[in-house]
Amino acid sequence: MKKFDKEVKRYSERAHYDRDSLYSIIDDSIFCVVSFCMEGLPYAIPMNFARLGDYIYIHGSCDTRIIENLKNGAPASVSITIPGEPVISDKLCNYSMNYKSAIIYGRFENVERPEEKIEFFLGMAKKLNPLGWRDSIRPDKNEIENVCVIKLKIEEFSVKKRD
Known about the structure:
With 163 residues, this protein is α+β, with helices and mostly antiparallel strands. It has one domain (14-162): Pnp Oxidase, Chain A. The chain has helices at residues 19-28, 65-70, 114-128, 141-145, and strands at residues 15-16, 31-38, 41-48, 50-52, 55-61, 75-87, 96-110, 147-153, 156-162. Strands 1, 2, 3, 4, 5, 6, 7, 8 and 9 form a 9-stranded antiparallel β-sheet that branches. Strand 4 (50-52) and strand 5 (55-61) form a beta hairpin. The termini are far apart.
């Protein structure tokens, strides 16, 4: 299997490869963009997500192209960006923006256990609704069986920050 090239090339002094930097960005963001190729065409889909331990979890209808493709182990990347303040310049081509970003590379796997799916949904609800998630109705057995949850083990990644 071909390895992912996770090395930051441009402005490499801004790169970080430690989990603390990565998890800080993951835990402060509420959405990611999942990218993959299918039948030779690129796709980039914004998704809600949650991190549980060393895994990124996403969910969707079982018949969507993203879930169909990724649950079978296709290579993917997950990108997360937290925008910062604009960087203003007297030269138009020097305008920029401060940011924190992360890219995680790997292959998703299907989550089968109902308890693990519920743990993901609780994690996502806490992320999206920190004060009110406890009032949410838990999914019943039928709902759990009819939604697909997939996870990606966090092994290969890079972080880049411009402060």
